[in-house]
UniProtKB/TrEMBL annotation, chain A:
Recorded topology in the membrane: Multi-pass membrane protein
InterPro entries (alphabetical): BPD_transp_1_N (IPR045621), MetI-like (IPR000515), MetI-like_sf (IPR035906)
Cleavable signal peptide: none
Organism: Subtercola boreus
Any one Gene Ontology BP term: transmembrane transport
Name the UniProt record assigns to this protein: ABC transporter permease
Transmembrane segments: 12-30, 101-122, 134-155, 233-255, 275-301
One GO cellular component, as annotated: plasma membrane
The UniProt record lists the keyword Acetylation: no
TrEMBL record, chain B:
The ABC transporter domain, residue ranges: 16-267, 322-567
Top-level lineage group: Bacteria
Any one GO biological process: peptide transport
Assigned keywords, A-Z: ATP-binding, Nucleotide-binding, Transport
Family designation: Belongs to the ABC transporter superfamily.
Protein's name in the database: ABC transporter ATP-binding protein
UniProt key word Transport: yes
Keyword ATP-binding carried by entry: yes
Gene Ontology molecular function: ATP binding; ATP hydrolysis activity
């Protein structure tokens, strides 16, 4: 087991190098000059431009820029953003916010999604099942910003249950509404996934055998159906957690959450290589760790999966 | 066994009495009746077998008893009286008390009937707990070990914590039997309990099941498609066909004097019975003066085997089509120290136009030999000569030419056809691959092939899901014949089929061999089938050929203990048959 984890962590190294290189290259290849763009409509002063270029190593060839940057990372230095802040500071400020948002969203979609999906699956073809399928289809079809604006308007403006914007240093409770919005689409996916998985498992031979042993539904559903049905759901949750960390851009924008998505979006627009690459690097690391955690979780859910040294 | 020798039997009311049972399945096109007025009765301590092909309603009847019909199945009429109570009228809750406690159930496929995510101990213990057989953790565990030991798991105490995937099929079936009998039920329903297992394992497990039910005094309702097996294991037989009981009575009587045409067909088609019969006549197959009742529609294994034997006797000495010399295949196992020798120094030769059967249990290496012959795997060591050519160095065009002359048919008629291609395209695909003929000539060839395997030409535009298992296997055979090969490798090609369909396919293979002069390598675990189709037999055990002789010789004078075991495992040994 320990050997397996170590091997997986070692495998992460080439992935790490590869992704940072790719991202760095893509930012480098973006059209437009980020330094000129900083001056907006004003005519740039050539001396200032040259000084800025040197400061951000933009006068060096691409590979040298990349190596300088990577060298920094290993010393814990993620570079400096165009606004003069160290990237590490921005990371430290934004990641906890997004992480909190993602965890709340994940909890909501997991608990509600599995519960609703399970009931729908067990009552296949009944009213509850049909209603659930229809609602989940609507949720999947709606763009997230529509859900976000409607939620913001109904719960924030009309009912006044939640604050419409979050802003810097807001308490966790303010994150619940954006988290629900964020969770809504994945919730629909999890409902459908759990439902079909439960239906499939329910028709398997060992479930019939469990009935033939004289067990009641109250035992068979949680013990023999639900546990076996969770494996595909766990796979989905893992990738979704990654998506929540990265793809919250729109929701964070609408609710003005000072999180990763928002910040990354701004950095991409400005062509800030170090900031973009640093954010993506951290995301890649999180993704790798989450995936490892999920693979280990499989082992707990399904004893057939064992790790070869 | 006569009724006098069984002291447990009382003359009172039957334990189980099914009267005019009707079971229907809801489909989009209305209700489909799976069971149409089945009746049977079983006294305490007796054994009764329901025999029939798939779709005959035998399993549905069994599932209806414990109200575990799959999907949309409902009991639409009739009574199921168990100790005088009508089970069809019980509520779910009341049924829970009957299941497991009064009526045990042993399912068909041991691979899919244990929950893969819970340990064996957990699954046995929960059955014991649910039926109130023991209370307290320690007591329950003790009882679980006891039950498993009875069922033939000697080291049950050590294996309680293990998971189903760490058990072999036979061991899992023992667990399921132990579970089914754990609360000493009055009736045990065994639904094809051993059809997924190797023959020798089947025998020990059924012997054990016999012994246990006798000791406990449990009545046994045994469901099988194999008439020989049914007659050997049960006192009474019920033959089901299309949802109805067509014949019932004492096993021996039915077997010796089947009255209904369907039963007669079953008797004629059962390979176990056919091989016994061929064996019990002391003549060699060629002189066997046997005439089948004409009602069996030409579906007669013995007649087919006889015909084959005559043809082979007339044929002159022929050269070898396949020669295998010292063939070895070694697999490296990740993490393990030693390598695994799947095939170990195997040599045999097959004459052109004859059939050699490669017999062995699962894991004996017989399929690996087939893969190496087909060049789907490379041999670690040894030589394969096809018509005198060493196949190992062949590459590219030469390999394609080799494949053209040697075609496979695999076991699973469901898995070996592409569901997205129609039958015509499937059969014609090899012609396209090998660039033979044009559109029109290929079409003609496909129709010719369909006729050869006795399928209607209209099938060429249909898709695999519209065909029955037997039809699909015919399609697979037609595809194999498309390139006019000299050699066909049949890897368990009839094992997944019902006896009647199996008999048809065996006959087809036999006819095609006579017509086209094909050479067959027939891989199977079932010696009974070998008796009617093969000229020579190689028995494999743990990667080695342990016995190699003509079929007559192997059946008349088996040399090795293992071969004798395999022969003994063919059901129907103790039944006198009217030849």
């Amino acid at each position: 087991m320990a050997g397996y984890i170590l091997r997986r962590l070692l495998q992460a190294i080439p992935v790490f190098i590869g992704t940072t290189f790719l991202i760095y290259f893509m930012v480098f290849a973006l059209p437009g000059d980020p330094i000129i763009a900083l001056f907006g409509d004003k005519t740039p002063n050539p001396a200032v431009v040259a000084q800025l270029r040197a400061q951000y190593h933009l006068d060096q060839p691409f590979v040298v820029q990349y190596l300088i940057y990577m060298g920094g990372i290993f010393r814990g230095d993620f570079g400096i953003s165009f606004s003069g802040q160290p990237v590490t500071e921005i990371l430290a400020r934004t990641f906890p916010v997004t992480l909190r948002l993602a965890v709340i969203a994940l909890l909501i979609e997991t608990i509600a999604g599995i519960l609703v999906g399970m009931v729908a699956g067990l009552r296949k073809g009944k009213l509850f099942d049909g209603t659930t399928l229809a609602i989940s289809l609507i949720l999947i079809s709606l763009p997230v910003f529509v859900i976000a604006f409607v939620a913001q308007f109904v719960f924030g403006v009309q009912l006044g249950w939640a604050r419409t914007t979050v802003g810097e240093g807001a308490p966790t409770i303010d994150l619940i509404l954006p988290a629900i919005v964020l969770a809504s689409i994945s919730f629909a996916q999890i409902v459908r996934l759990t439902r079909s998985s439960v239906i499939e498992t329910s028709s398997l031979d060992f479930v019939r055998t469990a009935y033939s042993k004289g067990l009641g539904r109250g035992r068979i559903i949680p013990v023999h159906i639900l546990r076996n049905s969770l494996i595909p759901v766990v796979t989905y949750l893992a990738t979704d957690f990654g998506v929540l960390l990265v793809g919250a851009t729109v929701t964070e924008g609408i609710f003005n959450v000072p999180g990763v998505g928002n910040t990354l979006y701004q950095a991409i627009i400005r062509g800030e290589g170090p900031t973009v690459v640093s954010f993506v690097t951290v995301m890649v690391l999180i993704y790798l760790l989450v995936n490892l955690a999920v693979d280990l979780l499989y082992g707990l859910l399904d004893p057939r999966i064992r790790y070869v040294k | 066994m006569s009724s006098v020798s069984n002291p447990r039997r009382d003359a009172g009311a039957p334990l189980l009495e099914i009267k005019n049972l009707q079971v229907g399945f809801q489909t989009q096109n209305g209700t489909v009746q799976a069971v149409r007025g089945a009746s049977l009765s079983l006294r305490a301590g007796e054994t009764l077998a329901i025999v029939g092909e798939s779709g005959s309603g035998k399993s549905t009847t069994a599932h209806a008893i414990i109200n575990l019909l799959p999907g949309s199945g409902r009991i639409t009429g009739g009574e199921i009286l168990f100790e005088g109570r009508d089970l069809a009228k019980l509520s779910q809750k009341e049924m829970e008390d009957v299941r497991g406690k009064l009526i045990g159930f042993v399912p068909q496929d041991p691979m899919s009937n244990l929950n893969p995510v819970w340990s064996i101990g957990f699954q046995v213990e929960e059955a014991i707990k649910a039926n109130g057989i023991a209370t307290g953790k320690r007591e329950i565990k003790k009882h679980a070990i006891e039950v498993l030991k009875e069922a033939g798991l000697g080291d049950a105490d050590k294996r309680l914590r293990q998971f189903p995937h760490q058990f072999s099929g036979g061991m899992r079936q023992r667990v399921l039997i132990g579970m089914g009998l754990s609360s000493r039920p009055k009736l045990l329903i065994a639904d094809e309990p051993t059809s997924a297992l190797d023959v020798t394992v089947q025998r020990t497990i059924l012997d054990n099941l016999d012994k246990l039910t006798r000791e406990i005094g449990t009545a046994l309702l045994f469901i099988t498609h194999d008439l020989g097996l049914a007659a050997e294991r049960a006192e009474h037989l019920v033959v089901m066909y299309k949802g109805q009981v067509v014949e019932s009575g004492p096993s021996r009587e039915i077997l010796q004097n089947p009255l209904h045409p369907y039963t007669q067909r079953l008797v004629a088609a059962a390979p176990s019975l056919a091989s016994r019969r061929i064996q019990s006549s002391s003549h060699s197959l060629g002189d066997l003066d046997y005439s089948a009742p004409r009602s069996v529609e030409g579906l007669d294994l013995i007649a087919a085997a006889e015909h084959r034997a005559e043809l082979q006797a007339e044929a002159p000495q022929r050269e070898d089509s396949i020669v295998v010399e010292n063939l070895t295949k070694v697999y490296k196992i990740r993490g393990a120290k030693g390598d695994f020798k799947a095939v170990d120094d195997v040599s045999f030769a097959i004459e052109r136009g004859t059939t050699t059967a490669l017999v062995g249990e699962s894991g004996s290496g017989k399929s690996t030999v087939a893969k190496m012959l087909l060049r789907l795997e490379d041999a670690t060591d040894g030589k394969i000569l096809i018509n005198g050519t060493d196949t190992a160095p062949l590459r590219g065009k030469e390999l394609l030419a080799l494949r053209r002359r040697m075609q496979p048919v695999f076991q699973d008629p469901y898995g070996s056809l592409d569901p997205l291609r129609n039958i015509g395209n499937t059969i014609g695909e090899p012609l396209v691959t090998h660039n033979i003929g044009d559109r029109t000539s290929r079409r003609e060839r496909v129709l010719e092939l369909l006729e050869q395997v006795s399928l209607p030409a209209t099938l060429s535009t249909r898709y695999p899901n519209e065909l029955s298992g037997g039809q699909r296997q015919r399609v697979a055979i037609a595809r194999a014949l498309a390139l006019k090969p000299d050699i066909v490798i049949l890897d368990e090609a009839v094992s997944a089929l019902d006896v009647l369909v199996q008999a048809q396919i065996l006959q087809l293979l036999s006819d095609l061999q006579g017509e086209l002069g094909l050479t067959y390598l027939f891989i199977t675990h079932d010696l009974a089938v070998v008796r009617v189709i093969a000229d020579n037999v190689c028995v494999m055990q743990r990667g080695r050929i342990v016995e190699k002789a003509s079929t007559d010789e192997v059946f008349d004078r088996p040399q090795m203990e293992y071969t004798k075991e395999l022969l003994n495992a063919i059901p129907g040994a103790g039944i006198a048959l009217g030849v």
